[in-house]
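[job 4471] stage=fold_predict status=RUNNING
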Amino acid sequence: MKMKKDPETILYTNRLILRRWKKSDAKDLYKYASDPDVGPAAGWPAHRSIRESRGIIKNVLSVKECYAVCLKTDNRPIGAISLKLKGHTDLTDRDDECELGFWVGKPFWGQGIIPEAAAEMLRHAFEDLSMQKVWCAYYDGNTKSKRAQEKCGFKYQWTTEGVDVPMLHEKRTGHVNLLTAEDWTASIGT
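[job 4471] inference complete, writing structure tokens
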């Protein structure tokens, strides 16, 4: 199916559209972000209402380089993916480095959605934004995130005990991975 690009659409993959969030996405966001198996694994509480999801769109997801992960079949959000730039991540303070963050709704787990979306975001980071390094992290026990990062070529860097998870008022063990522009270029064969 050939899709026409519209002003809201940012990036395409075989199955996905990665686009900016809209206020009208609140109901779809709530549908997946209210699941207690989704947000807490990534360090944020499950959404409690559509109104809260609307506020999250306005105050959290409307930042630069944050995208709704949507299936091409209906262009409705099923997750989120972002490149956290300098000032929005604690993994780097450089302009040519960023952190990749992502999640997808539980009905879409195990379908390769995040590795597909992440592959396009990494292309965007290295080719369009001229990043030299992209960092990615996950909390102990989040094996789905760990596997997705491995599939994308991220390499283990370090583990930190007692990492603050402020939105959940707890401490966890965090694992940090890295993908360099050089390694990414070698992996795509160019």
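[job 4471] summary: The longest strand covers residues 155-165.
[job 4471] exit 0
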